[in-house]
């Protein structure tokens, strides 16, 4: 009688809901030393015209691959060759739109072909910077109001950055910006530009906008810069406008003038939106126009639009770098979600402008870590790799190695120290990883967020978690572990929710 188990597949076509029944058969008698088995897969599509199809697949079951316990199948396909893209190429169409009263921004991820080391090094620099300033800002709250906006959210690979991007309109001009929950100030590059990096869209020209207004010095809005950037607004004797300076942990920076203008989010217009008009900018922004700050300080987009969207937003990050997108939803348009599981909520920790949660445990392959814990973590869309306290990371690493055994080791890579050579496998079965948050909210990491493929042939595939340097540093849940999840931020209710969702809307 064949053994059976249930495994979730890595990728599902957005139009179908698939169910899997797996039967692992022993190797044929004529091949006593074979490591091949037969896997019976039943696939059922949601569409009525698509009948139940039984498939027989041959899979590699040797080399430490086991189908016992809670595991998922990871298909080791070569990653898309990023060298075919150039910064002069336009991004995929950004389908910002209104659906059922919600404004949707399409989300795309940004990445670089030959800068994997730089990506993780920059990620580490960002984490160090976050550790230095966490806890220094105060939450800003406002009254909720009914309105929604839904924007397509995409991979930023075509504009050469590792983050996720959306397209907005500023004074009627399209701007592609990075989505960052760890920042507050929204800014774009402006003319006249003293020092600007190359971007896809034309620079924003304040002179061409009749609604543009610089923020004067010695105003409450100018004073809000300190909470948003860590540096008070700068007022020169010959320049009555409020000037800002902002540096990021990876060495990127933007300096310019604080101003107001109209912003459009998938046809929802917000007048008098305060943003940074960058005159000197540089760093790892790829070909974007700037950055959208989704933090909780007074100048963040979320705080400024609370009268329209009620302080609620959510996103779904796609797993693919090209030809698919997720969404950024501003407002509590729960009926527009495509989640596969109910949204489970956990409370945000109070008295902070950042998004802190209480992580109470983790499990690997259904096995709870030996020492359960209660630790403060930050959820951040701008950090790539999840960071854990050294003691917690050791528990995760040891249990993962115990279950994911038998594969050849590979060298460490940057901040990743648990790597494998999977070049000889077309697919592998890997243990499920779950986070547990305060309030019995459990979140399962998508299979695409467990291993980081350093090399396209999978000869260097690393556990996509890293250790912090010290026990008292704050853990961070990065975007690599947030893929294929609907993450809901309710800043007024001070809670954060998760639901599984197929985020690749091609």
The mean pLDDT is 77
Using the alpha-carbon principal axes, give the shape. globular
Strand percentage: 35-45%
Helix content: under 10%
Main β sheet profile: 17 strands, mixed
The tally of strands reads: 35
Question: Radius of gyration from the CA trace?
Answer: 23 Å
The chain-level structural class is mainly beta
> What is the terminal separation in angstroms?
41 Å
- Unreliable runs, pLDDT <50, ≥5 residues? 1-68, 78-96, 110-114, 135-146
Can you count the helices? 6
Give a quick precis of the structure:
The protein has 506 residues and is mainly beta.
Structure in words:
The protein starts with a strand and ends in a 6-residue tail after the last strand. The chain is mainly β and 506 residues long. Helices cover 10% and strands 37% of the residues.
